[in-house]
Amino acid sequence: MTVTAEQLKALVRRHIEGDNDGFYSVALQVAAHAAKSGQNRFAQDLRALVDSAAAPGLGQLARPTPLVQPRGELAGLVSASYPETSLGSMTLDHVVRAKLERILSEQRQRDRLAEYGLEPIHRILLLGPPGTGKSMSASALAHELRLPLFTIQLHVVISKYMGETAAKLRLVFDAVAATRAVYLFDEFDALGSQRTSGNDVGEARRILNSFLQFLEEAAPGSLVVAATNHPQLLDRALFRRFDQVVEYGLPNEEAAVAVLANRLDRLDTHALDWQRVRVATVGLSHADLVRSAESSAKLAVLAGRDSISTDDLESALRDRHQADD
Predict the structure, then answer these.
(1) How do strand 149-152 and strand 78-81 relate by DSSP bridges?
(2) What is the C-alpha to C-alpha distance for residues 46 and 37, in angstroms, rounded to an integer?
(3) Is the dihedral of CA 250, 255, 256, 260 positive or negative?
(4) Rounded CA gap, 249 and 262, in Å?
(5) What is the pLDDT confidence band of residue 35, given thresholds at 50, 70 and 90?
(6) Which of 22, 119, 242, 292 could form a disulfide with 316 if both were Cys (CB 3.0 to 4.6 A apart)?
(7) What is the mean pLDDT of the chain?
(8) Would you tell me which CATH number, out of the four given (2.30.170.40, 3.30.70.100, 3.90.1150.10, 1.10.8.60), belongs to the domain 253-324?
(9) Exposure of 2 by Cβ count < 10 A (0-12 exposed, 13-18 middle, 19+ buried)?
(10) Domain ranges in the chain?
(11) In what order do the strands lie in the sheet with 182-185?
(12) CATH number 3.40.50.1820 given to 72-247
């Protein structure tokens, strides 16, 4: 028998989780083992099957089947989605991109790490100003790993009664262990803040301690992602509990132009004065840039033009500056 018991279990597990990348990886390991055992024909046939299944044009195999939905009380605490955002479509600082790619690499090879008693990165803290791509990064991680994205509704989780909040957090982390997914705690400072008023200090500390305990015990197959616009509010004890801290900043001029060009790729931008545009992008976030591009694009389309005007784009960028003031 070429397939070992562990490989067979890994294949079934990857199939149940909808993890095609992981399924193909294990299948190729089986093929390699067969080749070493002299079963060359079987190894060749298996590799051919994997190659044909993973080939471009079979996009339906690369998308998760939306079967996983929160149920019962958990349904009121999280919202589920299957993002289409890919990491390659995002304009990111090279350091940020490298960290996200490492997370993906370790998750995709978690079985190999487990053979050496190691766990993949699975507790991630995203820090940075609003609109810099933190939530979108969580979506991209889910998409790249073919996993659902579960966004925790913190305003529902946090209760004025300590016992209720801890019980709700327990429900969420029970799901982390039971269902492989990306779990996003957005606006995480609402839960992890070190600043509370008067009599709330002790209760907030107990809630934070509960979260830290659950985080420490979190299953490595799922990703727990916390994102905040206000890292200065977080209790410092949180930082060392995460496997990876990723810091986002406002895009520089070169990155800003790339964001604009990417969003305007269906229209003619050859006549744009990019130097004027560059100056107008300073201080704007990724989200601001995308909205500016979309605003100028709509003006062009509704005016019957297929090209973007420098004046229109520059005006849209100025409007975003005023909106942020």
Answers:
(1) antiparallel
(2) 14
(3) negative
(4) 19
(5) low
(6) 292
(7) 84
(8) 1.10.8.60
(9) middle
(10) 5-62, 72-247, 253-324
(11) 78-81, 149-152, 182-185, 223-228, 123-127, 244-247
(12) no
Cα 102 to Cα 76, 97, 148, 153, 311: the distances in Å are 33, 9, 20, 28, 41
> 259: buried, middle or exposed (CB in 10 Å: 19+, 13-18, 0-12)?
buried
111-118 mean pLDDT:
92
3-state secondary structure of 66: coil
Rounded to whole angstroms, what are the CA distances from 222 to 10, 115, 124, 141, 183?
A: 16, 18, 11, 11, 7
| Per-residue pLDDT at 54 | 53
- Which residues lie closer than 8 Å to 215 by C-beta, 6 or more apart? 123, 173, 224, 241, 242
Asked, colleague to colleague, whether 72-247 and 253-324 share their fold, the answer is: no
Taken in order 248, 249, 255, 259, is the CA torsion positive or negative?
A: positive
| DSSP annotation of 54 | T
Q: Residue 195 has what DSSP assignment?
A: -
Tokens representing 286 are 């990724």
The Cα 216–Cα 224 span in angstroms is 11
Dihedral angle of Cα 110, 173, 103, 94, to the nearest 10 degrees:
180
User: Which residue carries 């800003």 as its tokens?
Assistant: 256
Tokens of 298: 């709509």
Cα 209 from chain centroid (whole Å) = 25
- Provide the pLDDT for residue 107: 95
Check residue 51 and give its pLDDT: 66
